[in-house]
Write a structure and sequence with these properties.
- Helix 3 packs parallel to helix 11.
- Helices cover 31% and strands 22% of the residues.
- The longest helix is centred in the last third of the chain and has 19 residues.
- The model has no long low-confidence stretch (mean pLDDT 94).
- The protein has a single domain, classed as Rossmann fold (3-Layer(aba) Sandwich), CATH 3.40.50.
- It has 306 residues and is of the alpha/beta class.
- It binds the ligand N[C@@H](CCC(=O)N[C@@H](CSC=O)C(=O)NCC(=O)O)C(=O)O.
- Ligand LAXINWYW binds next to loops.
- It comes from Tremella mesenterica (Jelly fungus).
- This is S-formylglutathione hydrolase.
- Belongs to the esterase D family.
């Protein structure tokens, strides 16, 4: 198991925000960093024999150009997480320094834009495996670190690339593994919208459908929340998804988000399983996110503590 290096620790809310780094096998042994908010009773000194591994965990997956610091510093969720006694994990958004040609050229591709998938194309597959990092590696690393967490109780929250394509697709790909998923301004249909098409064309192969139809390739659909939702085998009534989108979001206007596609994909699901709310006048920024994160954390707490 990779060895964690503690980089910093700051008192916040009822606990501490701690930054760790480690060499990630999922990312081809590149160093990755994450922040974790540990509410007070999990970070207070205790002996191994008295430690209770009873703190549920919420992952926050940030969007394009962000690092592990965005949600922790600007997301406005730590007071509520402290009140609810929930840990929040903030991973980075991509590998850093893989040295792949083109990796640093664009803000919406490569560094800062890992799209929470496992790349299959030759150039990217060694390092760009953020899906494995989030789903398998980080939970094991956290378990091993013995921080008092209960890793059988995990929920997912995210923003933009970090949710529609990140947390929501991870949630839908793993029925029963996570308690709930919530989203701010998610990229709901990445296999048909510009950011997703650009990323999937390079990270995933093949980049065209074998029968030359208009349908995206299966490998793209397997990371597309709208397709995943419409074909989900999760029993009716078992999903818990909350989505907020601002009506003044420029990326909504530019057709990057397409929340209506996600809503259409819910039509065979039980009412209330997937709630999509349009929030009047809000944009794509952390002002929007931080307005609603307290409500989202409380909503997740219901499922994490059920
Ligand atoms: N081109 C700009 C815009 C980048 C941007 O808006 N990033 C969003 C996420 S977009 C979808 O994943 C973000 O969260 N930015 C951080 C913030 O503090 O708002 C640029 O290069 O900055």
């Amino acid at each position: 198991m990779p060895k964690l290096e503690k980089k910093s620790s700051n008192r916040v809310s009822t606990g501490h925000l701690i930054k760790y780094s480690y060499l990630s096998p999922a990312l081809g042994n590149l160093e990755t960093s994450f922040n974790i908010f540990l509410p007070s009773h999990s970070s207070s000194p205790s002996t191994d024999s008295t430690r209770q591994n009873d703190i549920p965990v919420l992952f926050y997956l940030a969007g394009l150009t962000c690092t592990e610091d965005a949600g922790a510093q600007k997301g406005g969720m730590l007071n509520t997480a402290g009140e609810e006694n929930i840990a929040v994990v903030f991973p980075d958004t991509s590998p850093r320094g893989a040295g792949i040609k083109g990796e640093e050229d664009d803000w919406d591709f490569g560094t800062g834009a890992g799209f929470y998938l496992n790349a299959t194309s030759e150039e990217w597959k060694t390092h760009y495996n953020m899906y494995d990092l989030i789903v398998d590696e980080l939970p094991k690393v956290l378990q091993e670190a013995d921080l008092g967490l209960d890793l059988s109780r995990i929920s997912l929250m995210g923003h933009s690339m970090g949710e529609g394509h990140g947390a929501l697709s991870i949630y839908l790909k793993n029925p029963g593994k996570y308690r709930s998923a919530s989203a701010f301004a998610p990229v709901c249909n990445p296999s048909k919208t510009p950011w997703g098409i650009k990323a999937f064309s390079s990270y995933l192969s093949p980049s065209t459908n074998s029968d030359n139809s208009q349908e995206p390739p299966e490998s793209w659909k397997s990371y597309d929340s709208s397709y995943l939702l419409s074909s989900s085998s999760a029993p009716n009534g078992s999903l818990h998804v909350l989505v907020d989108v601002g009506t003044a979001d420029d990326f909504l206007k530019k057709g990057q988000l397409e929340p209506q596609t996600l809503e259409e994909a819910t039509k065979n699901r039980q009412e209330g399983e997937v709630v999509v709310r349009m929030q009047e006048g809000f944009d794509h920024s952390y002002y929007f996110i931080s307005t609603f994160t307290p409500e989202h954390v409380r909503w997740h707490a219901k499922f994490l503590k059920a």
